[in-house]
Amino acid sequence: MGLGSGHRVCSQPWVLGGSRGSRGRPWGRGLVPGVASRRVPPAALLKNNGRKEKSPSARPLLEIYSASGLLLAGIPWKSGRLVQLGWTASEDLLCIQEDGTVLIYNLFCEFKRHFSMGNEVLQNHVLEAKVFHTEYGTGVAILTGAHRFSLTANVDDLKLRRMPEVPGLQKPPCCWAVLSRDRATVVLLAVGQDLYLLDTTSCSVVTPPGMSPTAGAYLRMAVSFNYRCLALFTDTGYLWMGLSTLKEKLCEFNSSIRSPPKQMVWCMRPRSRQRAVVVAWERQLMVAGNSTECIQFVLDEDSYLVPELDGVRILSRTSHEFLHEIPEASQEIFKIASMAPGALLLEAQKEYEKESQKADEYLREIKDQKLLPEAVSQCIEAAGYEHEPETQKSLLRAASFGKCFIDKFPPESFVRMCQDLRVLNAVRDYQIGIPLTFTQYKRLTIEVLLDRLVLRRLYPLAIRICEYLRLSEIQGVSRILAHWACYKVQQKDKSDEEVAHAINQKLGDTPGISYSEIAARAYDCGRTELAIKLLEYEPRSGEQVPLLLKMKRSKLALSKAIESGDTDLVYTVVLHLKNELNRGTFFMTLQNQPVALSLYRQFCKHQERETLKDLYNQDDNHQELGNFHVHSSYSEKRIEGRVGALQNALDAYYKAKNEFAAKATEDQIKLLRLQRHLQEDFNKPYVDLSLHDTVSNLILDGHHKRAEQLYREFKIPDKRYWWLKISALATRGDWEEMEKFSKSKKSPIGYLPFVEISVKHHNRYEAKKYAPRVTPEQRVKAFILVGDLDQAADAAIEHKNENEMNFVLSKCTASTDAAVVEKLNRARAQLLKK
Questions:
Q1: In Å, how far from its chain's centre is CA 196?
Q2: In a domain, 511, yes or no
Q3: Of 541, 560, 579, at which residue does a domain stop?
Q4: pLDDT of amino acid 705
Q5: Alpha helices in 290-357 (DSSP H)
Q6: Phi, psi of 264 (to 5 degrees)
Q7: Which residue numbers delimit the Vps16 N-terminal domain (predicted)?
Q8: How many Å apart are CA 548 and CA 202, to the nearest integer?
């Protein structure tokens, strides 16, 4: 065991390594206990927090450092007394005050927002606070002065929960922790030798299985990174380790150290069977796990432990170290006298570089055991877990050397590891200060790592990584450039024109870039003119218009919407203008935009009829005003109201000099009045019928004189009236009246319609009366309709028309119409001779 990053361990699977003597600014004293961490965020410190001087120079300083100790930002703390600091999963800093207010800052100490943990917390103040992380987000748990717990599981979706009261609790608990189990967040607390579990509705006493009866009172508890394991430390130095469900004990250890630990955290790797708890006192570190023995380290200075996915970070004034389990691949290769295939391959490569024949001996030994593919894979895997680039190179050279002796070894894992390590080494640089482990990097994903670089405004490095990994523009470079542009608009030292030009020069038409999002950021920063200039580069009108409306540039938004040709977009702007402007100004604005005015009229036709009338009146559009009154007349239930609306339409049509529309409206008024009288006289609905249906219904009801009256008053054309009347008479079955009508005067439609209508109503007897009266040109058709083929044949022969003869023949059957067929054939033969 050792403290240097290059020190190897043979007998134990745990190593403490890191950097000592940071090249950045020393962190100094004043670290606030409980700085929560997820995946190596920066370190937040509050200095001078204990001073009581009132002078401005004595104010506490909130400072944020990179993981390598470089100062990122700092501000004098002017708010209330701080109880706890913590990081969210998205690397925002949570500053929890004594009054329950939580202030949120970004990495550069720029204030973002705040929220309160509720009135009860405000009244009783915060004794202790913890920041925790679950699958739902970052949460905050509070212990108040009234010894009650309140928490929220997600600071981005604030839902405050007050936990049940612990019976008889008169003083703060000895220790407590937040657990996440079965999609619920609960609190576990210790009071003396008793453990209490608080869920949403109840408080229950719990007992860890296998706990020694002489364990004593609880001093510390720790929950593992994944919430699956729990550790309890008592005042007798007894350490219990088990599942957080409190249903199974994993192991126990007696340290014989009775003084309360300063911190206690879990140290474990995902999917590893090795579990360990790290207990820290002032200058001593103890690692206890499955073994009956423990490992102890002496610390040179006060340190702070930060549990992570695959280890524990140890931060002090001058160093940043990482305690972790040595992965199996690394153990196999680097343990003393190892004969693992990876170890032999590494030695073979080293001997090969020395041009020693031992290289062949090592290689042959691996090949004889048929373990060369395993050796290559082992070296590739171990390279990922190494922090020092030289060790990484040595292992990768060994893997590359071994690959040469394997047929068809898939190169993907080797290439991917080279890429991953190049990215990791770049971000681990002390000037960048993101010392991710390989396990953390894989869990984090490259997309989130790029987000972390963007948050630190390390845009060039993020772009180089995207280009190196050949990420798609939308996923990589475009997204980063968009973030850069959003940061650029916040710079107040340059003019709007310069900033807009610089952004456009850099971004151009890069796919995936939304100028509207950048413009929105500029507007949020109070730079409206810059936002408008940036929107000029936005090719999508649908993205321009909403922001212009938000900026109260409605007229410009209307012009952009019309240019787009998107009617829905125009409607959106028009309706926004309608709500924003007074009626007169709104109408005047539309007058200058014919397209918008036309669309608004269409809208009013379906939604706001009265507004439509106002528009027509303002435009002196008498034609459309007349149409409006005609349309409105049909919504009137009373005849007088309908006639009044039509009268208004008539006046408008006269003003529009539309004589046809005026005459039609006048006739409609006359018809309505006649229909009202008919309805009153015959007690039958006539109103709303057309002229045709009115006359037809009168004939059907036998009111022939009234039908004649309408025929004359409305000057119905003769042909139309005759068709209408014979159809109605046939429907009524009034054949006598129909025959009488046919003889009243010469039919303007001829007599074939009489035949057709009679046949249609299945009355061939009546049809035969009219067939002889049909004109010679239509007589063949008439006789066929009534079924008189003999007469049809005579008419065709008399006409000397071969087509008519053929038509009659097509209707004949040989068995029943032989005489007609013979007659037609003779006539056809004579016709052909001529």
A1: 41
A2: yes
A3: 560
A4: 87
A5: 328-334, 341-353
A6: -145, 125
A7: 42-416
A8: 52
State the pLDDT confidence band at 568, using cuts at 50, 70 and 90: confident
The tens digit of pLDDT for each residue in 388-420 reads 999 999 999 999 999 999 988 899 999 999 999
Contact 77, 124 (CB under 8 A): no
Structure tokens belonging to residue 514 = 């939304």
> What letter does residue 772 receive in the DSSP assignment?
G
Q: Which residue has the tokens 């044949």?
A: 793
549 within some domain: yes
In a domain, 286, yes or no: no
Residue 607 sits at the vertex; the CA angle it makes with 601 and 609, to the nearest 5 degrees, is 65
Question: How many whole angstroms separate alpha carbon 66 and alpha carbon 72?
Answer: 6
Structure tokens at 328: 């199996």
Positive/negative CA dihedral, 89, 92, 93, 98: negative
Print the SS3 string covering 472-484: CCCCCHHHHHHHH
Tell me, yes or no, whether 179 lies in a domain: no
What phi and psi values does residue 546 have, to the nearest 5 degrees? -55, -40
Q: How much is the pLDDT for 371?
A: 93
| Angle of CA points 435, 436, 440, to nearest 5° | 165
* Model confidence band, residue 540 (pLDDT cutoffs 50, 70, 90): confident
**Residue 331 contacts residue 41 (beta carbons within 8 Å):** no
Q: Where are the alpha helices (DSSP H) in 459-608?
A: 459-469, 477-488, 496-507, 515-524, 528-535, 541-550, 554-564, 567-580, 583-591, 594-607
Instruction: Give how far Cα 256 sits from Cα of 209, 289, 291, 414, Å.
Output: 21, 15, 16, 48
Phi, psi of 147 (to 5 degrees): 65, 35
Q: What is the pLDDT of residues 663-677, one digit of tens each?
A: 888 888 888 888 788
Matching residue, tokens 């199996």: 328
Beta-carbon contacts of 775 under 8 Å, excluding residues fewer than 6 positions away, are 750, 751, 752
What are phi and psi for residue 596, nearest 5 degrees? -65, -40
pTM of the predicted protein model: 0.70
Please choose, from the candidates 772, 754, 774, the residue with its C-alpha nearest in 3D space to the C-alpha of residue 763. 754
Which token pair is 84? 């706890």
pLDDT at site 241: 96
What is the CB-side half-sphere exposure of residue 246 using CA atoms within 13 A?
Answer: 14
At 334, which helix (H) or strand (E)? helix 328-334
Most confident of 329-333, 597-601, 636-640: 329-333
Domain of residue 440, residue span: 332-560
CA distances (Å), origin 601, targets 370, 413, 569, 750, 829: 84, 66, 16, 50, 72
Query: In whole angstroms, what is the distance from residue 1 CA to residue 5 CA?
Result: 11
Domain termination site, one of 560, 588, 618: 560
Cα angle for residues 18, 316, 30 (degrees, 5° grid): 155
Mutual orientation of helices 609-619 and 594-607 as an angle, nearest 10°? 140
More reliable by pLDDT, 38 or 238 = 238
Instruction: Please give the helix or strand (H or E) that residue 624 lies within, else none.
Output: helix 622-633
- Tens of pLDDT, residue by residue over 447-492, are 999 999 999 999 999 999 999 999 988 888 888 998 898 888 888 8
Tally of domains within the chain: 2
d(CA 219, CA 418) in angstroms, rounded, equals 46
Cβ neighbours for 347, distance < 8 A, ≥ 6 positions apart? 358, 362
